[in-house]
Amino acid sequence: MEEGLRERKKRETRQRIADIAMGLFMARGFDDVTVAEVARAADVSVNTVFNYFSTKEDLFADRQQLAVDLPQQVLRGREPGESVVRAFRRDYLDAIDTRDWRYGLNLGSDVFARIVNASQALVARLREMHVEREEGLARLLADELDTDPDDLLPQAVAAHILGTTRILTGYAVARMLAGDVWEEIEPDLRAQAERAFDLLESGLGDYGAR
Fold it and tell me: Which residue intervals are the DNA-binding region (predicted)?
């Protein structure tokens, strides 16, 4: 369905507020910027900001729900005969090729990391998001494979896979923060990813093959 004018204006206003907030966070740090300052810079009221974002942390993580839902999209998009591990291997390697934001490999992810690392509130929010991602993937796995309610394998599989992608991205971002260029990081990250997914695949095998 086509987006209505009202919905489009609301979406654009929300994005404008988030973009302005991010600019302020980048310039001064998350903890040193108030919601009132974001509202003034965006030429809206504080109430308007809170109409779009429940908390200050939501201003920073404005794509939170997209990030939480992404692992489920990978699971739903696996090809016939493709296991869960192979689907995530394919998706992660594609993100390396394209430097897509979905795994935090995009240009500027080191700036994002610096802002997060400097704020305990954001560190806690990112930790919550990781938990939500794992829980969402585990629920979908259990639903698709019709597992017994007491079966812990969906939780274990979700934790192993998303823990692996998180560790790989952490490695890449740490090198960006150290000043390494992507052309040096990329081949090492790819080799590390191949080894990590090989290990997952040999341990998890064809679990969840469609």
Answer: 34-53
